[in-house]
Amino acid sequence: MTKTPSAADAGKRAAALAALDDVQSGMRLGLGTGSTADWFVRLLGEACGAGRFRDVVGVPTSLRTGELAERSGLRLTTLDDAGWLDLTVDGADEVDPELNLIKGGGGALLQEKIVACASDRMIVIADASKSVDVLGAFPLPVEIVPFGWETTKALVEAVLADADVSGRETALRLARDTPFITDGGHMILDLRLGRIGAPRRLASELVAIPGVIDTGLFLGVADAAIFGREDGGTERRDAPKA
Ligand SMILES: O=C(CO)[C@H](O)[C@H](O)COP(=O)(O)O
Fold first, then answer.
1. Nearest-CA residue for atom 9 of ligand 1
2. Does residue 112 carry a catalytic annotation?
3. Among positive and negative, which fits the CA dihedral 11, 194, 237, 63?
4. 242 residues of the chain, pLDDT tens digit each
5. CB neighbours of residue 33 within 10 Å
6. Which family does it belong to (predicted)?
């Protein structure tokens, strides 16, 4: 049974519920990570159980989502077995007017990006507070290799010194006083940038550092965003045509 939403996550549930309208029987779905994506997984499980969709198969973007999806009765496969996906539904930490995103608050950015980019369409679901004019108030997660991480951090800081940003603090993400480790065995640096003036340039300069695997900047990846409000209403925005 679906849990009852608190007032705070009613907007997340509303967005997740609206995203079910994009699902059809037989689809191969990328399943995102985070509290909003959790709502989608639970509601999708209920909808499949009630017979609204048949033969849906999911590819989870994290161990956490995979466990929830199994508990929700969804049929799962791997990305390699699916080959290509029809639709990915995932949350975000920030969404700008062009539907560029910051993701990775939950530490799953790499698998989330791999799955979203192997999908015909990606729909972002979020509560209305995630809609921003300019990306950067939420710390930008950057996934890095543990080997030589302090050197990588120094190289990231050198990129930031010349970047069009309003803050330059970097911190290794911790979980109970030890480095947070992603499902892929990597670490995360969180960059407090305040405002990112040129996200494309920043993303390409950061991924050019050998120890950097990827950043939480999802630029031109999302096709649509659904924002949910606490009163249960939603607003849908499509990405500008390329
Ligand atoms: O990118 C993510 C995980 O890596 C999440 O989608 C993002 O952090 C939003 O999470 P939530 O829905 O809990 O606010």
1. 92
2. yes
3. negative
4. 556 667 558 999 999 999 999 999 999 999 999 999 999 999 999 999 999 999 999 999 999 999 999 999 999 999 999 999 999 999 999 999 999 999 999 999 999 999 999 999 999 999 999 999 999 999 999 999 999 999 999 999 999 999 999 999 999 999 999 999 999 999 999 999 999 999 999 999 999 999 999 999 999 999 999 999 999 999 999 999 87
5. 29
6. Belongs to the ribose 5-phosphate isomerase family.
Residue nearest to atom 8 of ligand 1 (CA): 105
CA atoms of 173 and 142, how far apart (whole Å): 10
Range(s) of the chain covered by CATH 3.40.50.1360? 10-132+220-234
3-state secondary structure (DSSP) of residue 38? helix
Ranges for all domains in the chain classified under CATH 3.30.70.260: 140-215
This prediction has a pTM of 0.96
CA angle 40, 43, 47 (to 5 degrees): 130
Pocket test for ligand 1, best of 9, 36, 129, 183 (most atoms within 8 A of CB): 36
232 annotated binding-site participant: no
93 is in an annotated binding site: yes
Report CA(108)–ligand 1 centroid distance (Å): 8
Residue type, 9: D
Burial of 20: CB neighbours in 10 Å, binned 0-12, 13-18, 19+:
middle
Q: Confirm or deny that 92 is annotated as ligand binding.
A: yes
Q: What is the ipTM of this complex?
A: 0.99
Architecture of domain 140-215: 2-Layer Sandwich (3.30)
